[in-house]
Write a structure and sequence with these properties.
The chain is mainly β. About 5% of the residues lie in helices and about 55% in strands. The chain has one helix at about 70-80, and strands spanning about 1-10, 25-35, 40-45, 50-55, 60-70, 80-90, 90-100, 115-120, 125-130, 135-140, 140-150, 155-170, 175-180, 180-185, 190-195, 200-205, 210-215, 220, 225-230, 240-245, 250, 260-265, 270, 275-280, 285-290, 300-305, 310. The protein has a 27-stranded mixed β-sheet that branches. Strand 6 and strand 7 form a beta hairpin.
Length: about 325
């Protein structure tokens, strides 16, 4: 194991006379030799987490400590209450930053006084479990399982050969691709995925959902935006796409066979270019139910405040 410790001190008071504190930054770095297929776990309060693949079988953790202090002496005092753990536990490397509970009378919004960002390099074949209470999470291209949780930032994930379960309470979620089952959810932003090979489960309470290509079953719902998805090949299983406040647009292969059940309370259902055996409703009406190319898995589409469009490609 290699450990490197850096000290960086900066004073913002000279640049911003109205500031009540300066920010001092200190950096701790540790490197571990690991075997392929291990796990990296990170947890921090108010900081961001960035994980990228490296070229060798090592895990390098850089912990950037951002301290609300005006002097080094004040920073040293604040760091006494920071519990920073960076260690190897068998096949797992763990990085945890926790700060003591705030004292009575501590001003809201100024806790914790030390934020720790983790910048990590791991072997390309690594499982990742990442949690932060207030920052962004960024994950590069990995082979393995990715779990990502943040309460106040965005989640951005690259190409994952494995599974993904990612969520945030206050930002956007963006995925490049995933070969396995994928769960993406947010309470306050958009959900975007370029390609999902496995099953997709996507949810947001306050934004749009956009899937450029999914090759399996999709469950997608938003309470405050539009849903747009392209389903490649035949439908592998039942799919449900819905919104309470926007449009639903789905693109399917022209030869795909499925049971269509589309309904809206605030617009019409459009399905030009598809061969449909009509059972209920009709094209341009508020409901359209029928077999497409002889029928198959269910494609259920719902919106309370917009239109629905199903088109071939």
């Amino acid at each position: 194991m290699k450990t490197t410790l850096f000290f960086l001190t900066g004073c913002l008071a000279a640049l911003a006379p109205t500031a009540t504190f300066a920010r001092i930054e200190r950096v701790v770095e540790k490197t571990f030799t690991v075997q392929p297929g291990g796990t990296f776990k990170a947890e921090t309060q108010g900081g961001s987490i960035r994980v990228q693949p490296g070229a060798d079988q090592t895990v390098t953790v850089v912990a950037k400590q951002k301290i609300r202090a005006s002097t080094d002496a004040e920073a040293d005092d604040l760091l006494k209450d920071l519990d920073l753990t960076i260690e190897q536990q068998g096949d797992t490397v763990v990085a945890i930053a926790k700060y003591a509970r705030p004292a009575m009378g501590f001003r809201f919004g100024s806790w914790p006084p030390v934020h720790v960002d983790f910048i990590v390099t791991v072997p390309s074949r690594t499982d990742a479990e990442l949690r932060t209470s207030g920052g962004d999470i960024v994950v590069g291209d990995l082979t393995g399982k990715v779990l990502a949780r943040t309460s106040g930032g965005d989640v951005k994930i690259g190409q994952i050969a494995g599974t993904v379960d990612a969520g945030t309470s206050g930002g956007n979620v963006k995925l490049v691709s995933c070969t396995g089952d994928t769960k993406l959810h947010t309470s306050g932003g958009n959900v975007t995925a370029e390609r999902i090979v496995g099953r997709g489960n996507l949810h947001t309470s306050g934004g749009n959902i956009h899937v450029k290509l999914i090759e399996n079953a999709l469950q997608a719902h938003t309470s405050g935006g539009s849903v747009e998805a392209a389903i490649g090949g035949s439908l592998k299983d039942d799919c449900t796409l819905g919104t309470s406040g926007g449009n639903v647009r789905v693109t399917v292969d022209k030869a795909a066979a499925f049971q269509l059940d589309a309904s809206t309370s605030g617009g019409g259902v459009h399905a030009a270019g598809l061969t449909i055996t009509l059972e209920k409703g009709g094209v341009g009406k508020t409901r359209l139910v029928g077999k497409v190319n002889g029928g198959g898995p269910l494609l259920k589409l719902r919106t309370s405040g917009g239109s629905i469009e199903v088109q071939p490609r």
